[in-house]
Amino acid sequence: MTVTRQNYDQELEELRNDILEMGTRVELAIGQAVASLTTQDIEMAKHVMAGDDYIDAMESSIEDKCMVLIARQQPLARDLRIIGTGLKITTDLERVGDHAFDIAKIALGIAEQPLIKPLVDIPRMSAMAQKMLRDSLAAYIKLDIALAENVCAADDEVDDIYHQTFRELLTYMMEDPRNITQATQLLFVARYLERVADHATNIGEWVIYLETGQRMRKK
């Protein structure tokens, strides 16, 4: 193996590590955002919101590295897929970070209000979406197609909980109009978590594409 190739492989490894670090941060942000909602922890919500700029900066840094690699190495075939999927995954992770920010903002907005119901399904959705995110990143690092496929399959269960949560919160609105404002905010939270699961699914699909060259879209 030439020195040039060794350096290139090292740069690709550093790119994967950067993506893993970003993924770890956004997963933590989602967990903290939901925790700030369930415990009505104002300081934690502010902490999550303040961290969004750093996540955005990580996205920009990874994008810059990808563009430099493409320009300098002019990669072909699988090497090009490695860099291209890195760009796509980073975009999904940044959007997960945005959802964490949005959930924390809602948590901050209703922190002084009594919760209209004990929050059970929202933390459950969060735990499932976070696991999907962890597994999708593990699949990316290990190039594990089976794990990526499992992530994609898990999305249906999150969707089911989202629809269940939607129906339950709609009932709260119908029973007492005073619940409408907070219930609507909680619906947004559930929707954001459903989207986190979708982004984890996207990452799983990009892993499959990276290894097989075939695009897969969940039906």
Automatic annotation (TrEMBL):
Signal peptide: none annotated. It holds the Pfam family PhoU. Transmembrane segments: none annotated. The keyword Cytoplasm applies. GO terms for cellular component: cytoplasm. Residues 19-106, 122-207 form the PhoU domain. Belongs to the PhoU family. Plays a role in the regulation of phosphate uptake. NCBIfam families: phoU_full. Homodimer. This is Phosphate-specific transport system accessory protein PhoU.
